[in-house]
Every structure is written in C-alpha cells, then in structure tokens.
C-alpha cells in the first residue's frame, strides 16, 4: 500500500559517514567543509560520561613529533578536533582516558583500524545506530546537535556503557587469543611483558581468551606463493626480531616508518588471513632498505617487533666516576614520563649520572658537544669568553680562547632543567664553560635520548624558552654587525630588542625568501649555512654561502640599490637618517622597504634570529652607531657583489664552504704514488673492522688545481650525526667524526653524508655487535681517542711530495683566489 512505510528503510544503511560526511537530525548526509583558522575560535561543548568538556571546533595540525606545524610565516594548518582529542583534554593523565586504542597515538594520523576506541553517541537523546571510532570522529560531524551531544565510553554506567564494554571486550579477546604472546627473546621478555599494550588491555577489560583458544585458531596462517604473506620469525636483522604471529595489523609501525621517520620501508602485504606487514617488497627486515632506526619497534603495541639483547647500547664512559642509569630509574623520573619505556630499555646506557664537585667543569668552550646535561642538584656557572670562529673552525678558535675577559656570565640551577642541548643536537662545539659552584649532580644525555625528550611538547616549549633567554645575547654578540660595539651600548641594544627577536629554524632545502619579495625581516644566522643565489636575466649569475654570524637582509632593510655603490658611508648614512628622523628629531617613516636581491635557501639545518622591520627601524633611529654599521656592511656587500669571484658558485656547489678538514691533493705536486692511502691503512690496521680498510679514496672533484679527495671533511654542521639509532657516531676532540664500536651498520650516516665520505664495510671483528654485517668507517684524523693536542693525519704525513693537505673550506678558497689574482696580475 502506498501509505505503508518502506519495509527496507532500516535494512540498507550507508556506512560512508565516518569521513567527510555527517548526518543531520533527519538522517540526511551533509558534507563537511575543510576546517579553517576561524574554527579555532568556535567552541563546542559535549558530555563524556556525563562530564562536560568544551573544545575548539578545530586545532592546529601537529607534526610527527607532536609539535604544531608552522610554515615560514608562522601560519598553522587547521584540522578538525575529534572525540578522542576532547577526551584527552578532559583527562589530563593519558592513563585515565576511558577510550582504549591500539592503533592510534596522538602524534599519528588516525586510521580507525583496531576499533577498540568505539564510543556510543547520543544527539539530543537520540542514539546513533552503531558505535563510532573516537579517534576519527570529528566534533564537526556532531555540530548539528548543538550542545546536546553525549558520549558514552566503556566507563559509562547503564546500557550505553554496557554496549561499549561488550564490544571492546570481544575485540580484545579475539586479538589476545591469536596474537598475545611473550617476546621471542627471553633475555628481555620479563621487562617487555608489562609494556605489551594488548596484554594490559586484556587485564583492564578482564578478557577471557579461553573460549577462543580452539584448534582452528591455533593453526598457523596460510602460506602464500611468491613475495606475499607473512614470514616466520624474522631474525635477519642484527638489531630487531620480527614475530609476525604477534602482529595485530594496527599499522602503527607503518605510520611510524612513513610519517614519523619518512623512510617508507614498511607496508601491508598479502590478503585476508595471510595479510601481514612487510619490508620493501616483503623482504626480510635485515635484507630490506630498513635503516634500523627503531621507530617501528617503539611504536608497536605488542611483541611483534622487539630488539635483540645484542643490540643494547654499549658505550665507553668518558668519566669513570659516572654511573650508567638503568631504564627503571630513568622511567621513575617525572621528566621522562612521556618517553616510550621500550625506547629507554633499548637505549639503556645513553644516560649517565654524574656527581660533580665544586669547581669541576662539565665542559669547556670549544669542546665537542655530544651530550646535554640535566641539572639535578647544585648551582652552575656559565661563562662565555668571546665568539668562536664558527666559519673557519680552526683549532686556535676552538681551544685557544682567551679566558681573561669573559663576555657573558650567569648562573643555572635545577629550575633551568637543562644546558648544552643545542650543541648536542647540532654537533656544534660548546659555546661556553660550565662549572659547578657547589657539589651537585647532573644526568648526561646522549643525542637520541634528548631527541625523544624534545618530542614532548611541554618540555620542548620549556627548553625552547630557556634556550632563547640564554642565547639572545650570544646571537647578537657573534653577529658581524655588533662585534665592535662597546659593552654598555651592546647591552642597551640587547635590552631594547627584548621579546621582539624570534628564532626560526629551517630544514635543508627550505627557502627562507625569494628574490624580488619585499623585505619585512632582518635575519642573524646562528647555526648552519644559507645558499644565496642571484638571478640575472633568467639565469643564476651568482652563488654565495653565508654561515654563522652573518646578517641577511640589511641591504633591503635600508632600501639600497647598486647605484649607492658610488656614494660614501657618510652620504648614505645621512640619507637614511633623514628618512627616519625629521629636522626636529621626531621619528618619521619615509624609508621605503626594499626588495630581496637574492633567493636564500638552507644548505643544512639553519637557525636564525628574526627581527621585524618596524623594530629594526626603531633601533636605527635610537642607535646611530648601529645604523652606520649596517650602512657600512651593506655598502661592503654591494661592492663585493660587483667583484664577484668566478670560483664562488663552484665552491658552494661542491659543499666546500662547510668543510673544516678537507683532504686536498695539489695536482701540480702529486705523483699518484698512493702513499696517502697506504699510510691510512697502515695507521688504522685491524682495530675497527678486523681487517685493514682505508678511510679515503684518492678520487673526487676538482677545485682549480686541487683534487678534493673522498674523505671525511669534518663538516662545521655535520649531516651524518642525524638519526643514528644507537648514537654510535659523534664528534671528537678536534671536531672530527668518530664512530664507536657499538655501530650496528644501518648505513644511515653514510646515506646522510652528501659527499660519500663514510664507507660501509663488513665487520669481521670477533667481538662485534653485528659480526658479518656492515659497519661504518670514516676518517677520524688519526686521533679518535683525543690523545693529541692537535691532529696529525697520516695521509698528510705519508705524502713524500707535500701534495696532500688538510684545509678548511675558507683556507682552500683563499688559496685559489690568491693564485687567480696572481695570475691576473702577471
């Protein structure tokens, strides 16, 4: 009959409303618009188990480390707030959140695979027809209900809570019956058992797996032909064990590999009951492109990926009084509460407890900065004795600091939490002396542990603020424009800048600004190098590099042009002053903003201090000496640009600007006798690999009459230090690269080195961590232990003709320039 209700209306239900769609009160699908920054100001109140919580409609997108993702202008990318986000806001302690999950972590993109985070939703008393995943369900999908949204979790009382509890318990029983098992390595199984998230959830919901332990469930997964389906226990890696029977296909390892680390090695393979995770084209882990970073193991909620006992970090203590802290002690410290316990177990040995006496130094200015210090007890004095020559990085600059006239001195206490973190993260030398003023205690952290701490947003912000307060004066003191100012005037400028100076970090290849853009900011380079490219008539006519201490943007700030080259400093300074101050001394703004004369791109990790144009103009009015200094610097650069050396582009292209110890061979003197290579092999012998190997290749690119040999350059900002899974690579006494014996041969340092200077060679030592697997080798200037006052590399000493030289990039460039100038003069 036409008036009868449709008998099939409740049978066929569309399930496509968990993504971009929502339903209104009439059940009609409504498409969601993309979130905007305006949604940050819109709030929605919902009730979770009867408790109200008000959240923004959207929140800023965060990167894989949990930090808010910003572009170069400081803008955020909005994403819709989810029900799980609201629960995290309501329950400050993550352990109290009544929404369990095995496939989701706050720093990962939600995928809704495990379905354990399901909740019951009621909108104005009307129950949704099915349970919905809280990790994916956006608050915006519930907006049509206004303030009448109720969320019921497994902690809720009544029928709604029972529905959720039954679903979660059943899913947990099914997963535990098939995949809950101890770690394959008995040496760490007892310690890893409490960290098994599936096991903890089983106890939490009081799951009974006995009813699912039937013969059909105990049969192994079907095998598939070719490279599909799961392997058996995969022990091909020297570092990790992969037990596919314990894998619940949550995809956390996949997202950890792809999104967090960007390695793109792990993915899904097989179908149905034979579905599994696979490495590359379902190769074994040890035979794939896996770099053994451990992010997958740390993210795994079960025992599917665990580390082998042989892969535990074994390091040599530089201070014999230091005590290696066990993972349990570190976990008990509130500062490490958000660091994954599995990481601390695996990296046990990278945190040392050090008791210090009054007058004892934690580090000296110019030392290699391989560690950071957590201040646990006592008072410490930080003293800076003058800027390091970061560009030349000579031994005189590193260890010949004049300690008679300190430029900066201040005290630190445990309230400051940490010191030395930037030297540890960047591989730069220590910027100050740190001395204990009284007996105390510090925890010394290696880079890997510090990286993990920096992922905790609250700690990251705290460390950043402390770092900014400490280095503000150092950034300006090392700047080429402020070096010559009297101390009283310098301090006045620093106080005047105050909070207006902000810090910006760039990744390699990231563009700071492009040629032709208006100049709104002035930058002071603190760390790293920028590539400066100038285009003329569509082609790049000039390429320069700029390093620490340099200023970027002063020409555009003053609106100078090439026509100003013919004017004197006094003439330009008077014209700038007239545009900023009228005849009565009142501030005016007739100085038009200039345009960028070049495109600046990060050649390495770069840190800059940024000063807004309005703040710059205020300083230029208030401090005539500072304004004149900027004018002089700008005119010098304009004149230099007119006399650009033809070797500069090649110098930058070969990366010679960042070399601190480049092995070059003068081809006018070299007879190709190969004594440099033979000397290298004889010097190192069998010590590192069990077989004799070389740390250099007498091959490479040409720079004028010099052959740039393939050997470690001891880069000012080393690329190779980033990401080592076991922190086996670090700086030595002379800023050289040293590779420790617990290297696991992942090859990440070799792939990070843009100059091919790190060699991966099979390790034949009997006591090796990964015998038979590759181990990294690099030039250590023949002094890995730091026993010499100055390095004496054998490759140079062995050359019978004086053709082999170890030079900084700047020294090499000046030699070529002088030769070129002498040739033109003759």
| Oligomeric state as shown | single chain
The count of DSSP E runs of length 2 or more, i.e. the number of strands, is: 39
What fraction of the residues are assigned to beta strands by DSSP? 15-25%
Straight-line distance between termini: 109 Å
Biggest sheet descriptor? 6 strands, mixed
Shape: globular
Instruction: Catalogue the unreliable spans.
Output: 1-27, 388-399
Count of DSSP-assigned helices = 23
Q: Given the helix and strand composition, which structural class is it?
A: alpha+beta
State the share of residues found in helices, binned by percent: 25-40%
Report mean pLDDT, rounded to a whole number.
81
Radius of gyration: 31 Å
Notes on the structure:
The chain is 26% helix and 21% strand. It has 826 residues and is an alpha+beta fold. Strands 3, 4, 7, 8, 9 and 10 form a six-stranded mixed β-sheet that branches. It has a five-stranded antiparallel β-sheet with strand order 15-16-23-18-21. Strands 17-22-19-20 form a four-stranded antiparallel β-sheet, with no helix packed on it. The protein starts with 20 loop residues before the first strand and ends with a helix.
């Amino acid at each position: 009959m036409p008036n009868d209700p449709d008998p099939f209306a409740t049978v066929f239900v569309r399930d496509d409303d968990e993504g971009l769609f929502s339903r209104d009160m009439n059940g009609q699908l409504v498409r969601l618009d993309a979130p905007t920054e305006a949604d940050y100001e819109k709030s929605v109140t919902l009730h979770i188990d009867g408790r109200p919580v008000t959240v923004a409609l959207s929140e800023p997108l965060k990167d894989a480390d949990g930090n808010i993702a910003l572009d170069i202008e400081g803008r955020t990318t909005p994403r819709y707030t989810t029900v799980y986000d609201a629960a995290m806001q309501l329950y400050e302690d993550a352990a109290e959140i009544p929404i369990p999950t095995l496939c989701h972590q706050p720093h990962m993109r939600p995928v809704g695979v495990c379905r354990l985070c399901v909740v019951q939703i009621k909108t104005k008393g009307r129950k949704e027809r099915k349970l919905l995943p809280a990790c994916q369900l956006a608050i915006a999908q519930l907006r049509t209900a206004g303030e009448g949204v109720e969320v019921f979790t497994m902690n809720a009382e009544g029928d709604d809570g029972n529905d959720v509890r039954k679903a979660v318990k059943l899913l947990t029983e099914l997963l535990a019956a098939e995949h809950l098992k101890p770690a394959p390595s008995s040496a760490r199984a007892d310690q890893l058992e409490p960290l098994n998230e599936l096991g903890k959830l089983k106890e939490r919901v009081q799951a009974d797996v006995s009813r699912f332990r039937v013969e059909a469930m105990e049969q192994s997964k079907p095998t598939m032909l070719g490279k599909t389906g799961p392997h058996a226990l995969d022990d091909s890696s020297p570092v990790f064990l992969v037990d596919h029977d314990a894998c619940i296909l949550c995809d956390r390892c996949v997202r950890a590999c792809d999104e967090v680390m960007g390695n793109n090695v792990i993915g899904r393979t097989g179908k149905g009951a034979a579905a599994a995770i696979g490495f590359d084209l379902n190769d074994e882990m040890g035979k794939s492109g896996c770099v053994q970073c451990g992010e997958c193991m740390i993210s795994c909620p079960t025992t599917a990926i665990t580390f082998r006992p042989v892969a535990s970090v074994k390091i040599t203590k530089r201070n014999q009084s230091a005590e290696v802290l066990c993972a349990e002690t570190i976990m008990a410290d509130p500062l490490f509460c958000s660091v994954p316990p599995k990481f601390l177990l695996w990296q046990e040995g990278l945190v040392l407890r050090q008791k210090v006496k009054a007058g004892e130094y934690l580090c000296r200015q110019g030392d290699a900065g391989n560690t950071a210090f957590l201040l646990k007890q006592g008072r410490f004095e930080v003293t800076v004795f003058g800027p390091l020559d970061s560009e030349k990085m000579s031994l005189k600059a590193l260890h010949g600091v004049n300690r008679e006239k300190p430029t900066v001195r201040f005290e630190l206490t445990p309230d400051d939490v940490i010191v030395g973190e930037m030297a540890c993260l960047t591989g730069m030398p220590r910027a100050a002396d740190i001395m204990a003023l009284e007996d105390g205690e510090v925890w010394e952290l290696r880079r890997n542990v510090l990286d993990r701490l920096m992922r905790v947003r609250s700690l990251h912000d705290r460390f950043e603020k402390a770092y900014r307060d400490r280095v503000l004066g150092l950034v300006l003191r090392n700047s080429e424009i402020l070096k010559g100012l009297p101390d009283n005037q310098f301090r006045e400028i620093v106080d005047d800048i105050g909070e207006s100076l902000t810090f910006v970090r760039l990744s390699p290849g990231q563009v700071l600004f492009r040629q032709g853009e208006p100049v709104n900011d002035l930058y002071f380079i603190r760390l790293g190098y920028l590539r400066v490219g100038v285009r003329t008539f569509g082609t790049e006519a000039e390429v320069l590099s700029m390093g620490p201490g340099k200023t970027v943007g002063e020409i555009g700030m003053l609106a100078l042009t090439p026509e100003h080259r013919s004017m004197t400093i006094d003439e330009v300074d008077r014209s700038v002053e007239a545009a900023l101050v009228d005849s009565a001394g009142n501030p005016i703004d007739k100085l038009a903003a200039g345009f960028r004369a070049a495109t600046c791109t990060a050649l390495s990790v770069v840190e800059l201090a940024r000063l807004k144009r309005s703040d710059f103009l205020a300083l230029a009015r208030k401090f005539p000496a500072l304004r004149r200094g900027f004018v002089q610097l700008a005119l010098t650069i304009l004149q230099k640009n007119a006399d650009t050396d033809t070797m500069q582009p090649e110098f930058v292209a070969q990366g010679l600007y960042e070399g601190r110890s480049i092995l070059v061979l003068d081809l006018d003197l070299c007879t190709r006798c190969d004594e440099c290579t033979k000397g290298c092999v004889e010097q190192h012998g069998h010590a590192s690999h069990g077989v004799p190997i070389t740390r250099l290749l007498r091959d490479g690119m040409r720079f004028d009459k010099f052959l740039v040999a393939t050997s470690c350059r001891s880069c000012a900002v080393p690329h190779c230090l980033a990401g080592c899974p076991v922190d086996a690579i670090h700086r030595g006494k002379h800023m050289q690269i040293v590779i420790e014996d617990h290297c696991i041969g992942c090859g990440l340092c070799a792939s990070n080195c843009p100059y091919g200077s790190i060699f991966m060679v099979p390790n034949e030592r009997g006591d090796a961590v990964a015998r038979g697997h590759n181990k990294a080798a690099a030039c250590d200037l023949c002094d890995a232990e730091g026993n010499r006052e100055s390095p004496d590399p054998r490759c140079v000493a062995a050359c019978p003709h004086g053709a082999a030289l170890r030079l900084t990039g700047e020294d090499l460039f000046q030699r070529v320039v002088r030769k070129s100038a002498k040739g033109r003069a003759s």
